[in-house]
Design goal:
Oligomer: single chain
Distance between the termini: 45 Å
Structural class: alpha+beta
Helix content: 40-55%
Strand content: 15-25%
Largest sheet: 5 strands, antiparallel
Number of helices: 15
Length: 637
């Protein structure tokens, strides 16, 4: 039963995993992102480092080329032949990568240039941006090379060489001047950019290949070392979830997944032991519940049957599987009938769902053979973790035999009470009989005195009426009748009960005090059985006052109105010998009595407690030895 429900619940447990949710995808993506985060700063650093290396190489190459060109042009300068010098400059500027060659005098004027547009241009070191790059610095910090943008915004690497004034130059230049001019060599940076771009592509390509290779190797390792083993564990756990607890995960090595598989095997073994124990306990509980002869049925909030025991299924003649989901109703005489109107209006299960408390009711019905069946129904709430009643357990007990015995006990106690009241009843009958006899004697003596005869006949009729009333009350009290619940007034029942016992109270010299509250609400009860309860209580009070000369019995009725639980109480108090505290807990036990055998059977309070219990009420007794007793009969509304 447990395995079946679990299999049904886990039928669609395994779901298809999207590729973006797979563990290998997440691990590989995480590793690649980590490589990317680490590689980007590294690439930026390497790019700048490589660019700086190329720049340094270009600067050194330009310096060497510039010195070489300057040495080559030196002969032309010494001959002071500008035409020849211009031709040599033009030839040298045609070399690969050389953008232009310029020779400036001390005033910054371009005297020789491979670029005709630059001839005659004067560079102002104070205003020209190209000049300020170096001339704003101190002499020691001035660079021999820099990067500039020409008119077309092309980046140019310019190296600068000082043409120093030597002795052999004094023929044309002032010996006082240390510098004869500036030699500028402009080299295009296009080759360097192409080389840098090519190298970057190689680096990026190599990086991509490394990332792909890393991903493939990592994917292979993850598949081999993790995912394949996890899939095996998943397949085994899926079969275990379907109830096959004999499955076992094979593992090798001593890594984390092996430890996981080993732990899972231990868990499966423990789970199997636990489920076996649960199954054993479940079967044991089912044996216990099915061994109970009372009908037990569990219903939900829609009053649908959830489960039931064997006594209930035998009663209705269906299996438990067929009953589950059916409406909760009474099965009378082997047929499926709806609840009787009287019971459906006072459904104890509905009250339990509403109040969340234990509810009890008594229902009676007739079998086909005319036998009256009494069914006692107890409803207990099942509460979830939120404190809500989600199901109710109904226990239905056939108490017909017990009811019959209780009625016999009640009738026996009635006869016992009648026996104890016999002297008082005889006295109540004897007094009118004496009066009737006297009246008859007077009529015999004066038969012709019609007015007197008429008066005597009236007295005789009144005496006969008193006797008839007393006999009728005695017959009603002693009659064996069925429980008949109807609206009754407690004050009326008290008054009717006193009719049979007032003479005993008077004969013992007991003072009777009545404080009956007016306008009491009606209660639902059986007046004859309640009268028996009150007579039993009053007889016990008279017995407790036998040896007292100042005995007092106080009868008080009261209506107690409360927001949650209103009630009507009838309270009987005497100032008699009281009850010993050790006997208070036993006074409702059948056949328990402290009186002489001829005065009591020990059934009075037990029967009274049963009767009041059938009325949904309770009896509370407080007593102090040698000071008296108070009996409170409470009827809840």
């Amino acid at each position: 039963m447990v395995h079946g429900s679990r299999i049904k619940r886990d039928k669609h447990y395994m779901k298809k995993i999207l590729i973006t949710q797979r563990l290998d995808f997440k691990l590989i993506l995480g590793v690649l992102l980590s490589l990317l985060l680490v590689g980007l700063p590294f690439f930026a650093y390497f790019y700048n480092f490589h660019r700086q290396q190329l720049m340094d190489g270009m600067e050194m190459s330009s310096s060497n080329i510039g010195n070489l060109i300057l040495h080559t042009l030196e002969s032309g300068m010494l001959q002071n032949d500008p035409t020849q010098l211009q031709e040599e400059v033009n030839i040298l500027s045609s070399q690969s990568g050389v953008k232009r060659i310029m020779i400036l005098n001390n005033d910054g004027e371009v005297k020789i240039s491979s670029d005709g547009e630059m001839m005659g241009r004067t560079f102002n070191k104070n205003t020209e941006m190209e000049c300020q790059i170096c001339h704003e610095m101190s002499y020691e910090l001035r660079k021999a090379a820099t990067i500039i943008n020409d008119q077309t915004d092309e980046e140019i690497f310019r190296s600068m060489h000082i043409v120093e004034n030597h002795e052999k130059c004094f023929g044309c230049h002032d010996p006082d001047n240390k510098i004869n001019g500036i030699f500028l060599l402009d080299v295009s940076m296009e080759n360097m950019r192409r080389q840098l771009a090519s190298n970057n592509k190689k680096i990026i390509g190599t990086g991509i290949l490394m990332v792909i290779a890393t991903g493939l190797v990592l994917g292979f390792l993850i598949q081999k070392l993790i995912l394949i083993r996890i899939r095996k564990i998943t397949d085994i756990t899926n079969r275990i979830s379907q109830g096959n607890l004999d499955e076992w995960i094979e593992y090798k090595g001593n890594d984390e997944i092996s430890n996981l598989a080993q732990s899972f095997n231990h868990m499966t073994a423990n789970l199997k032991e636990s489920l076996t124990e649960l199954e054993r306990q479940k079967n044991y509980l089912e044996y216990v519940i099915n061994g109970i002869i009372d009908e037990i049925v569990v219903v939900d909030r829609n009053f649908k049957i959830v489960t039931a025991n064997k006594a209930y299924t035998d009663k209705c003649g269906n299996s438990r599987d067929k009953l589950i989901g059916e409406n909760c109703t009474l099965y009378l005489e082997g047929t499926h009938n709806t609840c009787p109107l009287a019971l459906s209006h006072e459904c104890p299960a509905a009250r339990t769902f509403k109040n969340g408390t234990l509810q009890k009711t008594l229902h009676s019905y007739l079998e086909k053979d005319g036998r009256e069946i009494f069914m006692e129904i107890h409803c207990s709430p099942l509460v979830n973790s939120k404190g809500e009643v989600f199901q109710v357990i109904e226990l239905r007990r056939d108490i017909s035999k017990r009811k019959f015995l209780e009625e016999q006990l009640i009738h026996t106690e009635k006869l016992t009470s009648i026996g104890r009241l016999a002297a008082e009843v005889a006295h109540e009958i004897n007094n009118p009989l004496d009066g009737i006899q006297n009246c008859l004697q007077i009529i015999n003596k004066t038969p012709d005195d019609l007015p007197k005869v008429e008066t005597m006949l009236g007295l005789i009729s009144e005496g006969i009426g008193r006797i008839a009333f007393m006999v009728r009350r005695l017959l009603l009290f002693s009659r064996h009748h069925k429980l008949n619940m109807e609206p009754v007034n407690i004050n009326d029942i008290v008054e009717k009960s006193l009719i049979l016992i007032k003479h005993k109270i008077k004969s013992q010299g007991i003072y009777l005090q009545q404080n009956l509250s007016a306008n009491l609400p009606m209660i639902n009860g059986d007046s004859y059985n309640l009268s028996q309860v009150f007579i039993n209580i009053l007889l016990n009070a008279c017995d407790a006052l036998e040896e007292k000369t100042d005995g007092v019995i106080t009868i008080e009725t009261v209506f107690i109105k409360e927001s949650s639980n209103s009630c009507v109480e009838a309270e009987f108090t005497d100032n008699g010998i009281g009850i010993h505290k050790n006997n208070l807990e036993r006074i409702f036990s059948p056949f328990f009595t402290t009186k002489d055998q001829e005065k009591g059977t020990g059934l009075g309070l037990s029967v009274s407690n049963t009767i009041i219990g059938e009325h949904g009420g309770e009896i509370k007794i407080t007593s102090k030895e040698k000071h008296g007793t108070t009996v409170r009969v409470i009827f809840f509304l």
